[in-house]
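User: I'm writing a tutorial on reading structure tokens. Could you give me a worked example: one chain, its sequence, then its tokens, then a sentence or two explaining what the tokens reveal?
Assistant: Sure. Here is the example chain.
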Amino acid sequence: MSKRHGAPRATEPGCRIGAEPRLKKEGWEGWDDYAPFYDWENARTLGRRDVPFWRRIALEADGRVLELGCGTGRISLPLVRAGVSLVGLDRSAPMLNRARRRLAKLTDSPSYKLTNSLDLVRGDIRMLPFVPRAFSTVIAPYGVLQSLLADRDLAAALDSVARVLGPGGTFGLDLVPDVPNWREYSNRVQLRGPAGRGVNLTLIESVRQDRARRLTTFTQRYVERRQGRSTEHCFELTFRTLSVQRMRDRLDRAGFVVDRVLGDYRGRPWDARADVWIILAKKR
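And here are its predicted structure tokens:
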């Protein structure tokens, strides 16, 4: 998930993706189109402030670690550099292609050790393609479970995680709590700036809320300017609001016991006003 911005600044006309509500939408939609812009946006919003937390969790693992929704390797690569043996899974082939290119640069580095290990796998988090008890720890950073838009999808993902975790294994996840608080608006400039190689990007965003289903949809319009020419890229991302109590209930049904609930990446106790909700659970 990548929806933490400062105050919007301007209004421009934009594309009208999804102007009419759709009867059915999948949470994975839009992520292939997002791949070229994901790292650029996150460098200006979340950055790396969650990486040390997940690195600590992964280094405590007694065995291999699985990251759900690894994307471009924003978290996977720092964990591998720290010595974690990790599998990164994502449904988006364009995201994984970017992760593979970054991994190739890492393995060519003189500081890379042969003991480091990262496998990148394309797959669906609702149906994990691994044998039972394959991992000692599974992590789901940055609200990835909020891309599961229906209860049955969340239940399937949690059951799948329980299957691939060994007894006593750790499952760590975080939730972005403020998604339902976003006001609806249209075509507001959220970010702009250089993207390297003579390219400048502008992100123009619209937000729609489906409060009955607790869904928030972001329409993204990226304007790419290079040598006086402009190209537009439009897509949508939808996220579901999940409360800590709902996640506790779902985890219990899937065979987990909640160990800790934290309110930030430094380990402070959780409360409902926290910027991020982190849940660490153990498999029974």
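What the tokens reveal: The first strand starts at residue 10 and ends at 11. Confidence is low (pLDDT under 50) at residues 4-14, 18-23.
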